[in-house]
């Protein structure tokens, strides 16, 4: 009888500890999910500002002249350079957001919650469906000597409107 009561007390204690761990795990996941939402909002706000700055920035004529002297194929790499500048502009918000996205996604994989899964899926779709690997592929296909010339132009390290730059540097190729 004493052994049975001891086993019952032990079983109850173990189940309470397990429940406590689940409650603590849920509280931690809830906290992380709230942080993810906050960091996503911060990143989204910063990205909107960086993108608006990019749209408002045209390269000076002196840079357009340098670009014009390069092969037309260089034009495709301008989007990559501008998007890279936007990425730099959106730091550290982007890094903080991505870190939490990975943490929450990993934690949610252990014990899936529909609300979190749907939010993460929506973020992935909104954040990554618009991103294309094509600009990087275009940039990577540019010869190294051209990349070196592009790297020496400080204005190309800041965000700028790439289509405007390409159309001004190679107007004939764009039908102007």
Structural write-up:
The protein has one domain. 76% of the residues lie in helices and 0% in strands. It contains eight helices and no strands. It has helices at residues 2-56, 61-68, 77-89, 93-110, 114-128, 134-141, 144-151, 162-169. The radius of gyration is 26 Å and the shape is elongated. The model is unreliable at 17-22 (pLDDT under 50).
Give the topology, please.
Elements: H1 2-56, H2 61-68, H3 77-89, H4 93-110, H5 114-128, H6 134-141, H7 144-151, H8 162-169
Q: Unreliable segments (pLDDT under 50, ≥5 consecutive)?
A: 17-22
Cα separation of the termini:
96 Å
Proportion of β residues? under 5%
How many domains make up the coordinates?
1
Determine the structural class based on helices, strands and strand pairing. mainly alpha
Rg computed from alpha carbons, rounded to a whole number of angstroms? 26 Å
What is the tally of helical segments? 8
The total beta strand count reads 0
Fraction of helical residues: over 70%
The main β sheet shows up as: none
Task: Let me know the average pLDDT.
Answer: 87
Brief sketch in words of this structure:
The protein is mostly helical.
Task: Provide the descriptors you would attach to this structure in a database record.
176 residues; mainly alpha; 76% helix; 0% strand; elongated
């Amino acid at each position: 009888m004493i052994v049975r009561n001891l086993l019952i007390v032990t079983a109850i204690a173990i189940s309470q500890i397990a429940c406590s761990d689940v409650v603590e795990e849920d509280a931690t996941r809830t906290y992380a999910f709230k942080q993810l939402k906050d960091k996503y909002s911060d990143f989204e706000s910063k990205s909107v500002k960086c993108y608006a700055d990019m749209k408002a920035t045209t390269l000076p004529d002196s840079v357009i002249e340098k670009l014009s002297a390069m092969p037309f194929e260089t034009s495709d790499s301008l989007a990559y350079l501008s998007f890279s500048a936007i990425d730099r502009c959106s730091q550290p918000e982007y890094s903080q957001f991505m870190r939490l996205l990975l943490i929450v996604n990993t934690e949610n994989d252990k014990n899936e919650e529909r609300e979190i899964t749907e939010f993460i899926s929506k973020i992935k779709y909104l954040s990554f469906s618009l991103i294309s690997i094509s600009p990087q592929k275009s940039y990577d296909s540019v010869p190294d000597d051209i990349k070196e010339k592009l790297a020496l132009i400080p204005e190309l390290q800041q965000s700028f409107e790439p289509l405007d730059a390409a159309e001004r540097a190679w107007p004939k190729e764009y039908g102007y």
